[in-house]
Specification:
With 280 residues, this protein is mainly α. The chain has two domains: 144 residues, no CATH class; 108 residues, no CATH class. Helices cover 48% and strands 9% of the residues. The strands form three sheets. Strands 1-2 form a two-stranded antiparallel ribbon. The protein has a two-stranded antiparallel sheet with strand order 3-4. It has a two-stranded antiparallel ribbon with strand order 5-6. The longest helix has 46 residues. The chain binds zinc ion. The site of zinc ion (ZN) has 8 residues, from helix 6.
């Protein structure tokens, strides 16, 4: 949903850092021997991600039969996430890399963990590959978990490679029953192909954004009541309408597809709301 700047760290530099304190000589050697495969896998990822072909990367249980999935996952959990692990400062840096610490998947909750785009449980070779890891909120991380895509339509939106803020796809409509509320939905932008739209529809559904946004917009309506009622009392529906228009344009300027933009646009387009529907 929100595009993020790609991490600048090199895949092998990060891997070397993470395994720098491995004491077991056999494990250390086997991990060292993974490096050519990691370089190849990272290059393949860089080629396929912009083409929406990450779903064609095969799931695997080991790295060349030499390092198991569990051993590679531990490079992440013990040597990057662990509080005193050598890779921890990279973990902290990436976790804090989203603007205002807003989760790129829901664009609402704050980031408090890292998410693997291709889950390490099925793609262990990408356990500490920078372009596969981005900050997210725990809720989105938990919803996505080990989901594997097998078609372009189900390829998840990737915060480093996808730009879904180029056109309007998030809309809302006022449900004209008191108390007023909003229903959020998606529309297909004119210049998007069917696959890109299917991906945002899947994203909207998977992360339960309709429910999340309806909840927050309900709070927004409640918090605006006092102000809007005063405007209505002094300047009538036109005064309310002008306020909503300003809100819509301002929100839209900041983020085309935020729930706030959709909310203010829907309220601006509802005569019912402006003429008293805002009253509980
Ligand atoms: Zn989130």
């Amino acid at each position: 949903m929100r595009k993020l700047n790609m991490p600048i760290e090199d895949a092998i530099d990060v891997f070397d850092l993470c395994i720098s304190k491995v004491q077991n000589a056999d494990l250390k050697e086997r991990l060292e021997n993974c490096k050519p495969s990691i370089v190849t896998a990272a290059a393949d990822y860089t080629t396929k991600a912009p083409r929406i072909e990450l779903h064609t990367i095969a799931t695997h249980d080991s790295i060349n039969g030499n390092v198991t999935k569990e051993e590679m996952k531990k490079v992440y959990s013990d040597r990057m996430v662990g509080a005193k692990s050598p890779g921890r400062y990279i973990y902290d840096k990436w976790r804090a890399s989203a603007p205002n610490n807003i989760c790129p998947l829901c664009a609402q909750r704050t980031t408090d963990t890292l998410d693997h785009h291709l889950p390490k449980g099925h793609y262990p070779i990408y356990s500490v590959v920078p372009i596969n890891i981005f900050p997210a909120c725990s809720s989105c991380n938990k919803i996505k978990l080990d989901a594997v895509s097998d078609t372009p339509e189900t390829d998840h939106i990737h915060p480093y490679f996808d730009d879904v803020e180029d056109e309007l796809w998030l809309k809302a409509e006022v449900i004209e029953l008191k108390p007023a509320s909003l229903r959020f939905y998606t529309i297909k932008p004119d210049h998007w192909d069917d696959i890109k739209y299917a991906r945002i529809q899947n994203h909207f559904r998977l992360f339960e954004l309709e429910k999340l946004y309806a909840s927050h917009s309900g709070e927004e309506l409640a918090m605006n009541y006092f102000r809007i009622n005063n405007m209505f009392e002094s300047g009538g529906a036109l005064s309310v309408r002008n306020f909503l228009k300003d809100g819509w344009l301002s929100m839209s300027n900041a983020n085309l597809n935020s729930w706030q933009t959709a909310t203010y646009e829907a309220l601006y387009n509802s005569n019912w709301y402006q003429e008293g529907g805002f009253k509980p």
